[in-house]
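I hope you will forgive my troubling you with a question about protein structure. I should value your view on which stretches of the chain appear to form regular backbone elements. Here, with my thanks, is the record as I have it:
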Amino acid sequence: MVMSEYEKQEIVRYASFLEDKGYTKNIMDNHLIVYSSQEIDISVGFEPYDDACDVCIRFKKENEAYYVGWIACVKGNLNVNPHQGLETIRMLLSFVKEKYSEITDINYCRESDKLIAEFMENAKKKKNT
């Protein structure tokens, strides 16, 4: 899905807190906006061949990346629909802003990954019963 000019402007507006924190904005193309610091990249993206979107946080030194949509689900009890484009991105950026100190801690993200694995396992069990 391609970001419209309006969607780009809205994402930049919602993510302005990242620039206030020293991140550099880079609009890569019609699918991806990346906010970079020395240690972290926060990517806001729309899948090019799908209608899904998400926010991803990547820890450069460790070369580890985590999807904020999943973290928001297991840690923030947010039910986001990755197919709702701009509405989803707004929710996820609000989550990042609210939980900034936690979400930029790699241990928080690693713990979240364990909860995501448990969530998926439980969902699989429910589906099979």
Summary: The first helix runs from residue 5 to 14.
